Amino acid sequence: MRNIKCIVAYDGTDYCGYQRQGRLRTVQAELEAAANVILKENVKIHASGRTDAGVHARGQVINFLTGCTIPTTRIPYAFNSVLPPDIAILGAEEVPADFHARKCAKRKTYRYRIYCSRFPSPFYRHYAYHVPEDLDLAAMEAAAAYLIGRHDFASFRASGSTVKSTVRTVFAAGLAAGGETTDFCITADGFLYNMVRIIVGTLLEVGRGRIKPAEMAVIIAARERSAAGPTAAPHGLYLERVEY
Amino acid sequence: MRNIKCIVAYDGTDYCGYQRQGRLRTVQAELEAAANVILKENVKIHASGRTDAGVHARGQVINFLTGCTIPTTRIPYAFNSVLPPDIAILGAEEVPADFHARKCAKRKTYRYRIYCSRFPSPFYRHYAYHVPEDLDLAAMEAAAAYLIGRHDFASFRASGSTVKSTVRTVFAAGLAAGGETTDFCITADGFLYNMVRIIVGTLLEVGRGRIKPAEMAVIIAARERSAAGPTAAPHGLYLERVEY
Residue A43 belongs to a domain with what CATH number? Predict the structure, then answer.
């Protein structure tokens, strides 16, 4: 049995999220159906983590064990020939037997794409969050800096979710020039449920002048969901990269 | 009656082109239906020109005569509130009575977006032409330079189309850095049917080393469709800008 690691990109628009949910259209179901055809065996695909409905991935990582003999370099071509065009395998490599896409992930990077323009763009309607007003980008950048480091991010966790620890380490967080869009990128050792979208919802309030950058320290310290801003829409979010 | 000029962007993916065709879904039909609702009158919308099925517009120009009293600055908001999300009005201004979006157009610019990467991208599947091999961009740039000036472009006209003159003036033609894509941009005083797509199909042959840049002079001089390369796919093409 070989353990194969793949990089996967998908347009999340027409999916009910990554994870298999009965008969709903999910990325996992499509990947496992493709694997079934290509590898001629029922494999269980492990991903670095799930993504919600409408959320995209440019660098999701998956792994699966297979007894098939297709050369590793041919695996992306084989999968892409049967996958729907809104999912693509961008690379494959053989990894040691103990590699697990979720359990071994060390850092993840998410990108949240914001389209600032008076009018909406037909081209970004599924791919960036439209903000019709001007945003104070310097204030957003200053606010984002408070996120960097090891903190309890309970304020940025969807209410109702239960995890053992809400402490995470953010390695980088800031705005990146993205052509016609303004992109917020954040790298951490892990993320709570909806954490990036709640952070972005809060940063957008900072950009609109409703929250001062320094209040981010207070919001983090509150450790209460109600202290942070709203949850930003899913369609601006991309799982950008997973590091091991 | 006021004469209103608007800038329109649309994602051509789900349209059978710009021009009204019976009951098919076209951009013109959607715009006129929206005008009907907003202006409460049946207006005839004139565009700078038609675009084919799958072709996009970032700066199409339209005009229409209306007796309605909506302030011009409110027109984009009014239209966008009823238009489907794959069409957006990006601006409106009142123009003299003799302005006509097609007849008065002086220059048009088209962009053709090429995504060069070993594997296809889910995000560009409707928005750029995927080329899995490396292209010789310098050769393509050199070939494009032959297009600039006043020439008979009969070699780059879809066979079967009939126009009085096939002479056009190209003011600029070349590659532009476009982030993850390579974009070919061309500005001319007018374009023959499928002219940009045949030019791009020919330039891609140059990029693949099958046609030498200097052969562009021979292809232009031939004044025969068969001398040029294939017609590139519609989904990489954008009507970028119209000047008056």
Answer: 3.30.70.580
Chain A positions with Cβ closer than 8 Å to B: 9-11, 56, 58, 76, 80, 85-91, 119-123, 125, 127, 178-179
Q: What is the CA radius of gyration of chain A?
A: 19
Between CA A211 and CA A72 the distance in angstroms is 50
Q: How far is A37 from chain B (nearest CA, A)?
A: 20
Q: What ipTM describes this predicted complex?
A: 0.92
Q: For the ranges A141-145, A164-168, B157-161, which has the lowest average pLDDT? A: B157-161
- The boundaries of the domain holding residue B9 are 2-95
* Domain C-terminal end among B95, B126, B155: B95
d(CA A45, CA A231): 29
Whether B234 and B57 have beta carbons less than 8 Å apart is answered as no
Query: Per residue in A71-93, pLDDT tens?
Result: 999 999 999 999 999 999 999 99
> CA B144, CA A86: separation in Å to the nearest integer?
33
Mind giving me the DSSP string for B163-188? -S--EEEEEEEEEEEETTEEEEEEEE
Domains of chain A: total: 2
- Comparing alpha-carbon positions, the chain A residue that sits nearest to B79 is A119
Question: Is residue A102 a part of any domain in this protein?
Answer: no
Residues A87, B179: C-beta atoms closer than 8 Å:
no
- B37 & B150 share domain: no
With tokens 């999912």, the residue in question is: A87
Is A52 considered catalytic here? yes
Report the Cα–Cα distance between both ends of chain B, in Å, rounded: 22
